[in-house]
Amino acid sequence: MLELTGEENAYLSSLHTSEYESHRRRNSNPVKGTCVWLLNHPKYQEWLQNQESSIVWLSANPGCGKSVLSSFLIDVLKHDDDASSFNLCYFFFKDDNREQRNATFALSALLHQIYTSQPRLVQHFVSKQSSGNTDVTKHFSSLWNIFKATVTDPGSKRTICIIDGLDECDKDSRKEFAVALAEFFKEAKQPQENTSCTASLKVLILSRPDNIIRNSFSSLPNVRLRGEDEIEAVNQDVDRVVQASMNDLEKAGLPQQILVDLQHKLVKGADMTFLWTTLMIKLLEEAAEAGASKTDLQKILQSKDIYAIYHQLLQKTSKQEETIRMLQIVVAAARPLTLLEMSIAMEIRRERVGREEIVQMMKHPFENYVKSLCGHFLRIIHGRIYLVHQTARLFLLQQKTKPSSSRQLVNLGSPVIPQNFIWRYSIILEEAQFLLLNICVAYLYMIGGEIENRDLSAKHLEGQVPDLGLLDYAAKYWPLHRRQVGNIYIEWETWWRYDRLCDPDFAGFGAWVQKHPSYVMNFPGRMYIQGARNNTRDEILEFFGLDEVHLRADSAGMGQPYKEEENMLEGSQSECEDNDQGLDQVPTEEVHPAQLTSATEIREMSDRFSHYRRMQDRELERETALVGLQIVSGPPKSHSFPEIRSSNGKFSLLLDKQ
Question: DSSP assignment, residue 79?
Answer without folding.
Answer: T
